[in-house]
Design a protein that fits this description.
Strand content of chain A: under 5%
Structural class of chain A: mainly alpha
Number of helices of chain A: 9
Oligomer: heterodimer
Radius of gyration of chain A: 20 Å
Chain lengths: ~260, ~230
């Protein structure tokens, strides 16, 4: 594997600085505080399973909030680079387009991992739930996958509204796609009409094109369920590599 | 000044139109579990807790209380099934059935709740025995149906095989025959559950203490289990 050029690492560091300047960290901390507050409210209103309900509520809310913040931050920053021609300054350096994308990806991946670990700290510090470490690591991996997706969509679509909409839709489908596939499997005794089978087919096809996000940081791990840490990391590696390949094709084709 | 006036107007508006489940008059049929799972983005555990909280509170929108006895029990059981199917690892629906809904309504309504607890106990006896213990108590002292209480006690004796479950769980019928009285039985069961580490939530302890009849004093912790191993 060839060493990463210093200029790519420099671009990654610049991306981290950019995230700091645009208050991504502060937004993430606010999201964590909001999720904690709502989880503690849950603790006050349930009759039983107080710790379990609190931990689960926190995990669900913090995940959605951070996924939204990361996606918006990455898309807004990248589209601004494109619109204000900041990208021209970078490409004037001895840097290919793919190396530019790699530098940005390294920077945003670092931000995502930090956000994932920050989200897991309240669980690691104040809870004795067995799955909290696995959940934290898996959520950090999930954050890297969604950051990669957001970066690719921003580079490809070049518009904030369109890219955020696509990001939201793809994330939601990646979370519930497996359920839609399962629902489409059983069509009853009639085996479904041609249209039903067509619907089930394209849902399945869409499922093959997206990652199984439901495998990452499963909330059931925090609620006493079996911990299956590993397949999610493999899924993450496969999908980030796939997104990298798509980015390679897209960046060769694109005129900045 | 204008800002304060507008803020006050907003507060007045909110006070005049308080949030209420105006569209909920009875429970109705619950949505399919698959639809709830999809709507919750696959977060089944949280969805289960939200269903439980809905069941716990839906009859009390801002003080306009619908008596629990008026709630249609077959529909309620479908909702409890939904909550249990979404999150089989929690005892919340079983707690609601045995001690919240099971202690109100006509004898037939209470018996339906207890029978539901017994039915779901049979799926995971080693995890769900605490709720059938509650059902024994409710059958014995609230329903005054000794035969039903003994039937449940026999189920505890024959179906609970977990060696870590306290011995007194399998000897509930001895407690029934001891005839200590309602408050003493309630204290004994609560103490035994605390001893067994089954009650970890302060809110649950408070709720169960509030169910001890004519006794408002908290249960000392730990309390002797009602029947010790020979």
């Amino acid at each position: 594997m060839p060493p990463v050029p210093r200029v790519v690492l420099g671009l990654a560091r610049l991306t981290l600085l950019e995230a700091r300047r645009t208050a991504v960290g502060k937004a993430a901390l606010a999201a964590i505080a909001m999720a904690l507050s709502l989880a503690l409210f849950m603790d006050r209103i349930v009759l039983t399973d107080q710790e379990r309900a609190t931990v689960v509520t926190y995990a669900v809310l913090v995940r959605l909030a951070l996924v939204l913040i990361l996606g918006q931050a990455i898309i807004a920053n990248t589209v601004r680079d494109l619109n204000e021609r900041i990208i021209d300054n970078f490409l004037a350096l001895p840097l290919t387009r793919m190396q530019y994308a790699l530098g940005k990806w390294l920077g945003w991946s670092g931000v995502s991992i930090l956000c994932g670990i920050a989200a897991g700290l309240p669980l690691l510090g104040f809870s004795d739930t067995p799955g909290r470490l696995a959940w934290t690591m898996s959520f950090a991996a999930e954050a890297v996958v969604v950051a990669s997706l957001a970066l690719l969509l921003a580079l490809t679509l070049g518009r904030i509204v369109t890219a955020v909409l696509a990001y939201g839709c793809l994330y939601l489908f990646a979370r519930i796609g497996f359920m839609l596939v399962l629902l489409g499997k059983n069509m009853g005794a009639t085996e479904g009409s041609l249209l039903d089978r067509f619907d089930a087919g394209y849902v399945q096809l869409a499922g093959y094109l997206l990652p199984r996000m439901d495998r990452f940081a499963d909330t059931a791990w925090l609620a006493g369920g079996a911990i299956r840490f590993g397949p999610d990391i493999l899924q993450g590696v496969i999908y980030v590599a796939l997104l990298g390949a798509v980015a390679g094709i897209e960046l060769r084709r694109k005129q900045f | 000044m204008l800002l304060c006036a507008l803020l006050a107007a907003n507060v007045a508006f909110q006070r005049h139109y308080p949030p209420a489940w105006t569209d909920v008059h009875d429970l109705g049929t619950p949505p399919p579990a698959a639809a709830v799972r999809a709507a919750a983005l696959g977060e089944n555990v949280l969805a289960g807790y939200l269903v439980n909280l809905f069941l716990q509170n839906f009859n009390v929108p801002l003080g306009r209380v619908t008596p629990l006895a008026d709630i249609d029990r077959p529909e309620l059981i479908r909702w409890l099934d939904l909550a249990t199917n979404l999150d089989p690892g929690t005892g919340y629906p079983l707690l609601l059935a045995s001690r919240h809904f099971g202690e109100t309504g006509s004898p037939e309504q209470r018996r339906m709740m207890l029978d539901w607890v017994y039915l779901r106990f049979g799926e995971q006896p080693n995890q769900r025995w605490p709720w059938l213990v509650h059902a024994v108590y409710v059958a014995r002292h609230v329903l005054k149906d000794n035969a039903l209480a003994e039937y449940y006690a026999a189920a505890l004796r024959t179906q609970v095989t977990d060696p870590t479950a306290p011995t007194w769980v399998r000897q509930m019928d001895l407690l029934l025959h001891a005839d200590l009285g309602q408050a003493a039985d309630a204290r004994a069961i609560l103490g035994g559950l605390i001893d067994a580490g089954q009650i970890r939530s302060p809110a649950e302890l408070k709720f169960l203490e509030s169910r001890i009849p004519a006794v408002q004093a908290p249960v000392p912790v730990p309390v002797q289990a009602p029947v010790r191993a020979p």
